[in-house]
From TrEMBL:
Alphabetic keyword roster: Cell membrane, Membrane, NAD, Oxidoreductase, Quinone, Translocase, Transmembrane, Transmembrane helix, Transport, Ubiquinone
Function, as annotated: NDH-1 shuttles electrons from NADH, via FMN and iron-sulfur (Fe-S) centers, to quinones in the respiratory chain. The immediate electron acceptor for the enzyme in this species is believed to be ubiquinone. Couples the redox reaction to proton translocation (for every two electrons transferred, four hydrogen ions are translocated across the cytoplasmic membrane), and thus conserves the redox energy in a proton gradient.
GO molecular function, one term: quinone binding
Location relative to the cell: Cell membrane; Endomembrane system; Membrane
Protein name per UniProt: NADH-quinone oxidoreductase subunit N
Quaternary state and interactors: NDH-1 is composed of 14 different subunits. Subunits NuoA, H, J, K, L, M, N constitute the membrane sector of the complex.
Residue runs in coiled coils: none
A GO term from the CC aspect: plasma membrane
Length: 487
């Protein structure tokens, strides 16, 4: 009975595993001509997983009923909420890739398989209830991501991005594994709930080092300062659809995993890790903002924007409360919409030959060439800057509110002050699009899929998005509450 219940809880992971195997066989037999068909099949499989997970999130499932395999896997509402965002980011990466990869001669049947395997790894990550499950999911996602970063073999930038990501990712994985081994050695267990019980009376020196090393390893995965050095180079060098994938789904998975480790495994020792998180939050906000100011490449600018947004998310984690966890989930949801919309808009910037444009100067006078595209991209920039009435303002507001309610008023004030710096480079892009002389290079046409994704993302982060904030906020609060239930 225990096995049957556990298997029912991991149904989405089973679907993803079988789908990856089936698509791999189809690709092996049919060759690269099956790539588009495999992408559609992968989207259907992920959408099916979305349909499985959504009812659990709406029901706020948590506690013992959501535990599988004796605590190693947790299919609670918190993991479900994160999975829905992961699935959305993965589907977007599958939909926007074919035209781009075909144009550069790199559309192969392995692409959807790698995305599904990465999605499977992320799905395991956010449901981890044990250090062993954590590492399996993390490495499954990472191995697929390394290949995706270097997917365009004819592009030296892509190969360089893959190599850098692999080397630094392996280093981070080693640090994380060392921290896990120290944690196990000084607590005698790898289960999150058991670790929480052991450290409730206080952290020993060894367990403290284990916690620090684990935070360092996970900080790399979310590209938090000072472990962000790989992000601009990898984002710039990787194919743009892959960069959009890296900036959305894996970011959600890593942040959710960090929250689960901090609030579940070490939730009884919030003061032990709060100072580290506060430093990473402020440093990420400031470095992300300052680093983006001098960028001329849009992908590098969005990389620093990602670092900047991670800082705001960590402000919610620093609160160490259910409200803080809920604010993180809400911010992630808005962040995924903003990120997908920004990268889709970037993919739509093409010259008359259909080649990708990545320079900020290429945006000059975009308003006169493609006013709808310019308006959508302006909405993304204003939302990322947190300027009302766009939804990015609400995302920042709930994070700051959680920090204030946790008596972290100074942190909230410093984060608000630092956010003003970031507004500069977002507004700079808007100025280039609307007030500079047209560059005359954005002449290519975009397909319906890109337009559909861009318009959907724009509507989500527009003032219309506020209509769903009450329901969405309640959903996030119930999901976050499951992190604090005994199982």
């Amino acid at each position: 009975m225990e096995l049957q219940a556990s298997l029912s809880l991991i149904a989405p992971e089973i679907v993803l595993s079988l789908s990856a195997l089936a698509l791999l066989l189809i690709g092996a037999w049919g060759g690269d001509k099956t790539a588009r068909m495999n992408s559609i099949a992968a989207c259907i499989a992920i959408a099916f997983c979305f349909a499985i997970v959504a009812p659990r999130v709406c029901a706020g499932v948590g506690g013992p009923d959501a535990v599988a395999f004796f605590g190693q896997f947790k299919a609670d509402a918190f993991s479900g909420f994160a999975k829905l965002l992961i699935y959305a980011g993965s589907v977007a990466a599958l939909l926007i890739a074919p035209n781009y990869l075909e144009r550069v001669g790199a559309m192969r049947a392995e692409y959807p398989v790698l995305v599904i395997l990465a999605t499977l790894g992320m799905s395991i990550m956010v449901s981890a209830g044990d250090l062993l499950t954590l590492y399996i999911g993390l490495e499954l996602n990472s191995l697929a991501a390394y290949v995706l970063a270097a997917f365009v073999r004819s592009d030296s930038r892509s190969a360089e991005a893959g190599l850098k990501y692999f080397v630094l990712g392996a280093l981070a994985s080693g640090i994380l594994l060392f921290g896990m081994s120290l944690t196990y050695g000084f607590t005698g267990t790898t289960n999150f709930n058991a670790i929480s019980t052991v450290v409730a009376g206080g952290l020993s020196g060894g367990a403290m080092f284990g916690l620090i090393f684990m935070l360092v390893g996970l900080a790399f995965k979310i590209s938090a300062v000072p472990f962000h050095m790989w992000t601009p180079d990898v984002y710039e060098g990787a194919p743009t659809p892959v960069t959009a994938f890296f900036a959305s789904a894996p970011k959600v998975a890593a942040v959710a995993l960090l929250a689960r480790v901090a609030l579940e495994a070490f939730g009884t020792q919030v003061d032990a890790w709060r100072q580290v998180v506060v430093f990473a939050a402020l440093a990420s906000i400031i470095v992300g903002a300052l680093g983006a100011i001098g960028q001329k490449n849009i992908k590098r600018l969005l990389a620093y924007s990602s670092i900047n947004n991670v800082g705001f998310i960590l402000v919610g984690l620093a609160a160490g409360t259910a409200q803080g966890a809920a604010s993180m989930l809400l911010y992630l949801a808005v962040y995924v919409a903003m990120t997908v919309g920004s990268f889709v808009a970037l993919l739509m910037l093409k010259n008359e030959n259909g080649d990708q444009l990545e320079s900020i100067s290429d945006l000059s006078g975009l308003r006169s060439v493609s006013p709808v595209l310019a308006f959508c991209l302006m909405s993304m920039m204003f939302s990322l800057a947190g300027i009302p009435p766009f939804l990015g303002f609400w995302a920042k507001l709930v994070v700051f509110q959680a920090a204030v309610d946790a008596n972290l008023v100074v942190l909230a004030l410093l984060a608000i002050a630092a956010s003003v710096i970031g507004a500069f480079y977002y507004i700079k892009i808007v100025k280039v699009m609307f007030f500079d002389q047209p560059s005359g290079v954005v002449l290519g046409k975009s397909d319906g899929v890109h337009w559909a994704l861009l318009i959907i993302s724009t509507l989500v982060i527009s003032p219309l998005g506020y209509l769903a904030t009450s329901w969405f906020g309640d959903l996030a609060q119930r999901a976050a509450a499951t992190l604090f239930l005994l199982s």
